[in-house]
Amino acid sequence: QVQLVESGGGLVQAGGSLRLSCAASRLSVSINVISWYRQAPGKQRELVAIISRGGSTNYPDSVKGRFTISRDNTNNVVYLQMNSLKPEDTAVYYCHSDYWGPGTQVTVSS
Q1: Strand 57-58's sheet: what is its strand order?
Q2: 3-class SS at 54?
Q3: Can you name the residues that pair with 71 across neighbouring β-strands?
Q4: Ramachandran region, residue 76 (left: φ > 0; alpha: ψ -120 to 50; beta: rest)
Q5: What share of the chain is helix, strand, coil (3-state, %, to 5)?
Q6: DSSP 8-state secondary structure symbol assigned to residue 80
Q7: pLDDT value, residue 56
Q8: pLDDT tens figures, 45-62
Q9: 51 contacts: CB under 8 Å, gap ≥ 6
């Protein structure tokens, strides 16, 4: 059974940084499209980063220049580096590749 497990969330002050990890089991991150989504209370889940099989990346304007998605093929992990965090980045962050992980909470205080 495919498993995606996120980690690295926490509480950080505005302007700070966090790096989220998504560890994959029974799914190779090197040959699959992997995405990060987030969902804030009362809002729809939204895409924040995607990495293709070829390694190209894409981001919505809301996080472009602040978030970076990358992958470690050897350890089968996908990362989301988040810099210059804002209170509006507060959400549960999910890893996705046909399957969803349980999510990790990110809280940015002002």
Answers
A1: 10-13, 104-109, 91-96, 34-39, 46-51, 57-58
A2: coil
A3: 78
A4: left
A5: 5, 50, 45
A6: E
A7: 96
A8: 999 999 999 999 999 999
A9: 33, 34, 35, 57, 69, 70, 71, 78
80 close to 20: Cβ distance less than 8 angstroms: yes
30 touches 16 (CB < 8 A): no
Residue 21 banded pLDDT, cuts 50, 70, 90: very high
- Dihedral sign for Cα atoms in the order 105, 68, 81, 63: negative
| Mean pLDDT taken over the chain | 96
- φ/ψ of 87, rounded to 5, equals -55, -30
Alpha carbon distance 87, 14 (integer Å): 6
CB 82 within 8 A of CB 67: yes
Q: Residue 84: what pLDDT?
A: 98
| CA 1 vs CA 4, 23, 27, 78, 104: distances in Å | 10, 14, 9, 18, 20
pLDDT (tens digit per residue) in 59-73: 999 999 999 999 999
